[in-house]
Amino acid sequence: xxxxxxxxxxxxxxxxxxxxxxxxxxxxHSTLGTDVNKASPQAWWSATCAxxxxxxxxxxxxxxxxxxxxNTRALHYFSLExxxxxxxxxNLHNLGLYSQAKQALSELGMNIADLEDQEEDMALGNGxxxxxxxxxxxxxxxxxxxxxxxxxxYEHGLFRQSFQDGRxxxxxxxxxxxxxxxxICRPESVQExxxxxxxxxxxxxxxxxxxxxxxxxxxxxxxxxxxxxxxxGSSVNVLRLWESRASDFFNWDVFNSGGYIDSARENIEAETxxxxxxxxxxxxxxxxxxxxxxxxxxxxxxxxxxxRYKRSHGDDWSEFxxxxxxxxxxxxxxxxxxxxMRILVDRAEMQWDQAWNLCQQVFAYTNHTLxxxxxEKWAVRLFEKVLPRHLEIIYExxxxxxxxxxxxxxxxxxxxxxxxxxxxxGHDPMVRMGHLSVVGSFRVNGVAEIHSQLVKSDLFPExxxxxxDKFTNVTNGVxxxxxxxxxxxxLAKLLxxxxxxxxxxxxxxxxxxxAFADDAAVQDAFMAIKQQNxxxxxxxxxxxxxxxxxxxxxxxxxxxxxxEYKRQxxxxxxxxxxxxxxxxxxxxxxxxxxxxxxxxxxxxxxxxKEIIYAINKIxxxxxxxxRIKNRIKVVFMPNYRVTLAEKMIPAADVSEQISTAGKExxxxxxxxxxxxxxxxxxxxxxxxxxxxxxxGEDNIAIFGLTVDEVKALHANGYNSMDYYYANPEIKAxxxxxxxxxxxxxxxxxxAAIKRSLLEGGDPYLVLxxxxxxxxxQEKVDQWYRDKACWAKKAMLNTALVGKFTSDRSIxxxxxxxxxxxxxxxxxx
Length: 828
Ligand code: T68
What we know:
Layout: H1 17-30, H2 41-70, E1 74-78, E2 82-85, H3 88-95, H4 98-107, H5 112-116, E3 122-124, H6 128-142, E4 147-152, E5 160-164, E6 167-171, E7 184-185, E8 191-195, E9 198-203, E10 209-214, E11 217-229, E12 236-246, H7 252-256, H8 260-272, H9 288-313, H10 320-323, E13 324-329, H11 336-347, H12 352-362, E14 363-366, E15 377-379, H13 380-386, H14 388-409, H15 414-420, E16 423-424, E17 430-432, H16 433-440, E18 443-446, H17 449-459, H18 461-466, E19 471-473, H19 480-486, H20 489-499, H21 520-545, E20 554-559, H22 568-584, E21 593-598, H23 606-623, E22 632-637, H24 642-648, E23 654-657, H25 669-675, E24 679-682, H26 688-695, E25 701-702, H27 707-715, H28 720-726, H29 728-738, H30 751-757, H31 766-785, H32 787-800, H33 806-818
Parallel strand pairs: 1-4, 1-13, 4-12, 13-14, 14-18, 18-19, 20-21, 20-23, 21-22, 23-24, 24-25
Antiparallel strand pairs: 2-3, 5-6, 7-11, 8-11, 9-10, 11-12, 15-17, 16-17
The site of ligand T68 has 21 residues, from helix 6.
């Protein structure tokens, strides 16, 4: 019998296979109340999680004690979203226990993969922004930085997607219906927060004016801690998520006067706050509940931070900015700025200037989008209703900003004031959360070089004039532990053999793999792994969609939220062009290709849902058309999420990163796919530009308009009709969409796409980029025909994207923004 021993770092207990087996059985008995003979897979999974948690909680205690003793400066990451996915195999890998667990379970007659499938995804996020937060907290723990993630403990994460006759259906996600082994409730750290009500101006005995907020409702925030296990390291940090509850269900006055139902209703309303994640990607609905969600978690978190600070510093605020830095993940938590001001000025009775000075040392803001419709704004009247005191504070922040900063640099310039004001004028005045975030932060960053440049030049040029040093870049990254080691074990093993085992925490080591790019034997090994991954994905596809796909075809993958700017419809037009070419020329020469999509559309985003419908209908037609002899297959994977990404990414040959230049802030799927040896077909947008710099132009298929060309085209008046009439292929394809060819008996069902591209003016320049896109795809097809050529390019992608580890992103944040120090955790 083999007995592996964990190689985990010093904060975590070492354990071997035998001990793990004993722990699992003990938990089956004493935690689950069952035994080996009758335990369900769910019970085995729970028992194994409980066994894993013995090591996790050990590390957690050691980390928390060390941080407390050392009184370290810590990062506080504020994010409305954390897209964690599953934690079982991730925690095992990071503890260095995966092979022991696999062995232990196998000796107990269980298959670890079956147990992994028992876990629901923790999908508390929409897309890239939420997944970035998850990668960042993994890296922070791995790098031994003291950090805590704060967010909302949503009862329902991102909706579950299915298709009915090709249309997206949304169902609620219940990720913790039967409990979740990874979270710990902390009733001892409950907070209470206030909303609604009115503000009273009072004068004390000295005649000093004071503002008193009389809230209309008190809500309780209950914290749930999710341990975040660093890789092979000693740190186990925490993700603290707040659940809302009514502050006192037994409001006896109401209860006794027969108001039981009223009191229960208030209860339900309070609990609604953390009920559900808003499924809006890029656009914000401006809903009252969303603003309350934002304020609820921000206020609970700030109080939590201050409680901890006061434990060692009492009422002395002088060390606060040395101990605390808060990163705002987009503007969603920006109400933290007026909230901290309120706490300091109204509660701690600090002078405004001193309080403001403190705020500006504590907050930093990451921008994730330039799309105008996604720049968060709240109606002043809504703010006034929900957070009356905060609105007053924002007015005062704005007044001082306009007088002390704007008017000093541009005296008497009312245009500048109008443009820079935190309050947007109009018949329905708005609070501009981006402006508030820039004014209240000491640092502002974009998420890829080009995006950070555009944040400066296009979004906040005057703010740059006021504070040139405030703006910086931190290019995104992804954790190679989840996105290579855990999801692609065969490739990970090959890398271990060829370049050693240091790469998971030092991803630049991957460049050593470039030396093997011309080695035929290693090429064969690399391609054999890709082939096996593709065969495994084909099995998943068959199970989920009943579609047969050939693992020898090119696997061409586009996985991301559905949005016009991401241009899934450009991909679709290419598929239609190929299909049409084959129908017109039955011997049309192309490498067989499987086009795989994974995407959720925001439930209220009509055109996005029409695009899903069109892809599904066209897939159905093409997949059943014998004439094309399987040269094209189209698959829309239902319910795309982290767990599905982990199966699709290792199997990708081609990575579709085809946003309109200037629209995708960074992208992170592009990094994961390249890391796993997929070749990017992409525009010069977001991090694609930096990927191209790293892998070299021979190993990526770049096409399309650049940011400058996009701007020039719009400035000179873009007319999509010109492309429709000039390119017969475009015309034929768009006209095709209007017929009933793909929707027998129902002509016009797919016409929405054509309408948006023609009458709608094609805002994302799909038609302008179509021709160069098709050319890039033809180039890729040619590359694939030469197996050695393809293997080399694919291997160089894996070898040369070491820059895009989230460990590097975190080190960039540390040196450019957070100024943290590493803290080695000691065992007790
Ligand atoms: C993404 N943004 C960017 N937003 O689109 C992507 N928005 O380019 C980038 O790589 C990623 O952030 C990480 O920086 C989002 O994912 C949202 O999900 C979102 C959610 C709610 C409201 C607005």
